[in-house]
Amino acid sequence: MKTISEKTIERLIIYRGLLLNLVSDKVKNIFSHQLATMTGFTSAQIRRDIMSIGYSGSPVRGYDIQNLIKSLGEFIDGEEKQPVALVGLGHVGRAVLDYLKGRRPKLEITASFDDDPAKVDRVFQGCMCYHVNDLEKIIEKENIKVGIIAVPADEAQSVAERMANAGIKGILNYAPVKLNIPSGIYVENRDMTLAVEKVAYFARTASE
Predict the structure, then answer these.
(1) pTM for the whole thing?
(2) 187 phi, psi to nearest 5 deg
């Protein structure tokens, strides 16, 4: 398979999200220059990105939105459903679980973990919460390759190591700490405090 860069994958995911919104508005076709206006990317960049997945539009009608969504889905999601493990059902973990519920049919949090007795062995948004001690057993049993970390910073490294040892290949990390894990495991960090502080800085300096 042709190697696609991380930035291209990110843009393709953005295109799909926008196209899904357009479908709900009953729009049938779209041109690259229209997507460029919506995304801030150039028309040429968008055409290259879409061609990289083997899809092309019509010079007259542009892209058929339904067909493009289907092609993007096949490329981004693959053929099989991907189960996801979530560790930490505090405020952040519950928000992630609630947000992802039903958004992508091939991507679903199927197992969550916590050490709070009030949460263990309960179902949240259709997802069973197991004790964190059972992390490796459940991940291996369910053949889960995607993990989300939503625990305090001082627990994140240990959780990441356990995920890696259990066979997780991709981690979304909400803990405000850099993870030290083996190569070959993709990590995406989401430090919300950093993001808010960054936005606040630019908001302050723009008004000075």
Answers:
(1) 0.86
(2) -125, 130
Run of H or E including 171: strand 170-173
d(CA 189, CA 201): 20
Amino acid of residue 174? Y
Task: Please provide the distance, in angstroms rounded to a whole number, between the alpha carbons at the two ends of the chain.
Answer: 50
CB contact set of 75 (below 8 Å; sequence gap of 6+): 12, 53
Q: Retrieve residue 103's tokens.
A: 């958004």
Same domain, 168 and 107: yes
Mean pLDDT of 7-18: 94
Cα gap 128→112, rounded to integer Å = 6
Dist. CA 110–CA 96, nearest whole Å: 13
Q: Do residue 16 and residue 100 come from a single domain? A: no
- Are the C-beta atoms of 110 and 144 separated by less than 8 Å? yes
